[in-house]
Structures are given as C-alpha cells and as structure tokens.
Amino acid sequence: MTRLIAIEGIDGAGKGTQASRLKEALVSRGLKAAVLQFPRYSATSFGAAIGDFLNGRFGSLAEVHPQLAAVLYAGDRFESRGLLLELMQQNDVVVLDRFVGSNLAHQASRLAGAERQSLIEWIERVEFGVFQLPRPDLTVLIDMSSQMSRELVSRKGQRDYTEREADLQESDLPYLERVRRCYLTLSSGREDWCTVHGLDADGRLRTIDDVASEILAHTMTLLNAAV
C-alpha cells in the first residue's frame, strides 16, 4: 500500500530540500520512492494561472478573495491527479512538496473565526471530495519564523514562474506570519500532522541533516506501523 507523505511550511522553510532528502533516505532503505512538487507552474494550466496570481496580475492579495485563489491551487492538483495516481502505483512512498495543506494554511490565514473554518471545510470538500485527490497518510510541517523565511527566500535562485526575488506572498512578512500561525493550528489539531522545527531553541537554523533525520523518523514510524 503506497504511503503519501506531504511536506509543508511557509516559503523558504526548506520543503523542497527535505522532500528530496526523504526520498533519498527511503531509496537507500530499499523502498521505491518519488517526489512530486506543487504548484506545477509550467506543467498545468492552473499552475500557470497561479504564477500570474503570485506575480500580481490579478491584483494584490487583498484584492483576490481566498476562496477564488484556492480554486487555482486545487485545480493545479486536479490536473495532476493522473500523474499522482500513476506515481502511487509505481512506488512504495510518494513525497509531496506542498499539497492540500498549503491551500488550507495560505487561504484560511486571510480569514478569521467561522469564515476561516468554513473555508477550510470547503477546500477539503473540493480537493478530497469533488476532485477525489488522495489524502496524505502523514503531513510534516517544517515550522520556520517568517523573518528567517524571508532571508532564506532571498537566497533562492531563479524560479520558473517569476523574475522577482520574492513573489506576492513571499514579500509580505505579516502575511507569512499569519500563514505560519495557521499552519501551527492545523498541525496541533490533527493526528495525521506533525511539526518539525526549522530553528533551534536559540532561534538559529538547524542543520539540514538534523531536520532530515527527524522527518525520516516520523516517516519510518508511519511505515513500520503499517507492516
């Protein structure tokens, strides 16, 4: 039975690096594993529209209602559903660099109270119900401060969807902090989520190896429980 592991976190948290490291660690243990990254900016029609959104083509964050933005991200995964199911047929573990959890945190962070909860339920109903996407067996949140996130984003190379150093979301520190707090709320309230800290107790970056080891430990606990 294929296991889905989703790696989540705000921009710059190291999701791509850790997704790749987890795949390598699983392969070294004799398992078949693959990584799939979302959004798929240059591979789907919705992904290209997400790039336009993040470059400000549709207006500022405040001008695009989060429910409408959520449709773009959900549509990108719906277009990729066939590929995801194919990878699940071919591998023991598929590691997802962002998945539905990103949509929940980023869009719900822009609302509060009953409106926030209603949007969370709507997004999950669309992605898992209407679009029939498989649910992750484990979602790992890499928690990173918004300030450190901004610094790490500035170190990134050229991305295929933007020529900017930071896109619409990455450049808005208050927004990133709201997303971070929404992620932490989601993780603390769900049994299939866990949180791995990207910073140590003194606020310094943990090493890539330390974070990778902790993520692998959570993953192996899941896999061993399934045996």
Notes on the protein architecture:
The chain has 227 residues and is an alpha/beta fold. Helices cover 52% and strands 12% of the residues. The chain has one domain: P-loop containing nucleotide triphosphate hydrolases (Rossmann fold, 3-Layer(aba) Sandwich), CATH 3.40.50.300. It contains nine helices and five strands. A five-stranded parallel sheet has the order 2-3-1-4-5, sandwiched between helices. The termini are close together.
> What is the CATH topology classification name?
Rossmann fold
Q: How far is the first residue's CA from the last residue's CA?
A: 10 Å
CATH class: Alpha Beta
CATH superfamily: P-loop containing nucleotide triphosphate hydrolases
Radius of gyration: 17 Å
What fraction of the residues are assigned to beta strands by DSSP?
5-15%
What is the topology, as strand order, of the major beta sheet? 2-3-1-4-5
Helix/sheet category: alpha/beta
Order of helices and strands: EHEHHHEHHEHHEH
* Low-pLDDT regions: none
**Can you name the CATH architecture?**
3-Layer(aba) Sandwich
Q: How many structural domains can be distinguished in the coordinates?
A: 1
Overall 3D shape? globular
- DSSP summary, beta strand count: 5
Share of helix among residues?
Answer: 40-55%
Largest sheet geometry: 5 strands, parallel
Give the overall average pLDDT: 92
Question: Helix count, per DSSP?
Answer: 9
